[in-house]
Amino acid sequence: MPQIQLTPAQRKVHRAEAHHLDPVVLVGGDGLTAAVKKEADAALKAHGLIKVRVFSDDRPAREAMLQTLADELDAAPIQHIGKLLVLWRPIPEKVKAVHEERMPGPRDVKVLKFSKRGGQKPEVKVVRVLGNQRLTSGGQVKRAKVLKKSVKKSAR
Question: In 3-state terms, what secondary structure has residue 10?
């Protein structure tokens, strides 16, 4: 997969956003293993912008790691400063499943019953209304009205 190409202005914005971040992936003495790549991919999916700390003193090796991670994870290399590497990839949008047959859930409604005498507090009653029910103006729970279908439409 090719890495993402960014303009210098976009890279500058991502560098500023990454300033306060802590490293979420650590690369030890074994270098870039499959587990490290998998963890970096999961962090990019979750956060989009990550810092990677490399515990190696070899600068060319760290630069190679940054390019390898960017190429294999389809990310953009943002910054390499000291032993920290910064990568960015847009977070994929989550798709919500829509269930057609899903009905609304129960809800709790407070019903106030006022006294006929003026000086008393109203009586508060909490009523649970299910999805197929409605609450009347008098505070009673009734079933929802069934919509009648047209005779003309059903004859077709």
Answer: helix
